[in-house]
Write a structure and sequence with these properties.
Layout: H1 2-30, E1 43-46, E2 56-59, E3 64-69, E4 85-90, E5 99-100, E6 102-104, E7 114-122, E8 127-134, E9 141-149, E10 152-159, E11 167-172, E12 178-182, H2 189-198, E13 203-208, E14 213-220, E15 223-228, E16 234-239, E17 244-251, E18 255-263, E19 267-273, E20 280-285, H3 288-292, E21 302-308, E22 316-323, E23 331-337, E24 340-345, E25 351-354
Parallel strand pairs: 6-10
Antiparallel strand pairs: 1-25, 2-3, 3-4, 4-5, 7-8, 8-9, 9-10, 11-12, 12-13, 13-14, 15-16, 16-17, 17-18, 19-20, 20-21, 21-22, 23-24, 24-25
Length: about 350
């Protein structure tokens, strides 16, 4: 009997060790730890005034681009002790230069830590509202601002809710309503790592309005960037660990109906949508292991991917830019307007490139 117990115990231990080994190999596969991408450069230059990242970028139809900078995110490098900032840049200017936006209102700017951003234009009076995810003391909340002048944001509201516990990105669909991605199921980092190890697709997308807050879609390993089609009919979500962009149809009552997934072959962070063409632009991490285990001698690279005709039967996925980290490290967003391409990063610089 004792011998049988020892055999059973040894069998269980061996099976558990084999399972953990398999999951570690799977995690290396998910993070693309052995991937090297060939260089593919464009005619680019560094954007002035941006030294500590441009984690997210969004562009209005008239070419005004908003950039969130200075993000401090657990597990990621950060080279600035200063609070984060929001910049605006006019892409139609012959020499686009970011200008820091002055924030008015009761928001505590000493702990401002902006992450994903989105803009909403009220068609009734053309008022522009800027939404940003904010992580003061690593909390999770959403700030709503009114863009009132060329260089001023008026803080209107701070939104918190138990369902908005680990917000990564948002897309505004009204003056006070939005969809938001949670990139963790558990706010605790150790428990989050466990869900990745076990391959549990528990992350979600939350719909928020003053009238209701609810989960609109789930089943993501780690839901990251989110955006909307120019006709407002489709919502796009980056499942960064799954290397896919998920497409949902937005239906009456703000219901999201899953349509399909498009494989991108990289860990794509934020999603931007070109107003005129509807093309999807993705800032991606070609090797996430180099991003999380930062080594300046072997820096994390950057990759920009475009998807044309994403809602068709045959979307076209192409690599537009790739670097090994010696020009730009940790690209998190790419946004295009009138043959100009902005590439932002989690913690480093930003590039302005010319597209052919």
């Amino acid at each position: 009997m004792a011998a049988m117990k020892k055999v059973l115990f040894a069998t269980v231990v061996a099976a558990f060790a084999a399972f953990i080994g398999h999951r570690f190999l799977k995690l290396k596969e998910m993070t693309l730890a052995t991937r090297e991408v060939p260089l593919k450069h464009l005619n680019c230059h560094y954007v002035k005034n941006i030294e500590y990242g441009a984690e997210d970028i969004t562009i209005l139809r008239d070419g005004l681009a908003f950039l969130s900078t200075g993000l401090k995110y657990p597990g990621m490098p950060s080279f600035s002790d200063e609070p984060g900032k929001i910049y605006v840049l006019d892409l139609l200017h012959p020499d686009p230069t970011p200008v820091e936006l002055q924030i008015k209102g009761e928001l505590d700017l000493s702990t401002f830590n902006p992450h994903g951003i989105s803009v909403y234009t009220d068609e009734a009076d053309d008022s522009v509202y800027l939404f940003t995810v904010n992580h003061p003391q690593h909390k999770s909340q959403v700030e709503i601002f009114h863009f009132v002048e060329e260089n001023t944001l008026e803080h209107l509201k701070t939104i918190t809710h138990p369902l908005l516990h680990s917000v990564n990105d948002i897309v505004a669909v009204g003056v006070e309503s939005f969809y938001a991605t949670n990139d963790h199921y558990f706010p605790n980092d150790a428990l989050h790592f466990l869900t990745l190890m076990l391959g549990l697709p528990w992350c979600d997308v939350v719909y928020y309005s003053p009238e209701e807050v609810r989960v609109a879609a789930d089943g993501f390993l780690s839901s990251n960037g989110i955006n909307i089609s120019p006709d407002k009919r489709y919502i796009y979500v980056s499942d960064i660990i799954d290397h896919e962009i998920d497409v949902f149809e937005r239906q009456e009552g703000e219901q999201l109906v899953y349509l399909k997934s498009v494989a991108v072959g990289s860990l794509c962070d934020n999603i931007e949508v070109e107003h005129r063409t509807g093309d999807i632009w993705l800032g991606c991490h070609p090797n996430a292991m180099k991003l999380s285990v930062f080594n300046p001698e072997d820096p994390p690279g950057s990759e920009v991917i475009r998807i044309k005709n994403i809602n068709s039967q045959q979307p076209v996925v192409s690599q537009v830019y790739a670097d090994n980290g010696h020009v730009i490290m940790g690209s998190s967003v790419a946004a295009s307007h009138e043959k100009k391409l902005l590439i932002g990063t989690v913690f480093q610089k930003a590039l302005l490139c010319n597209l052919k």
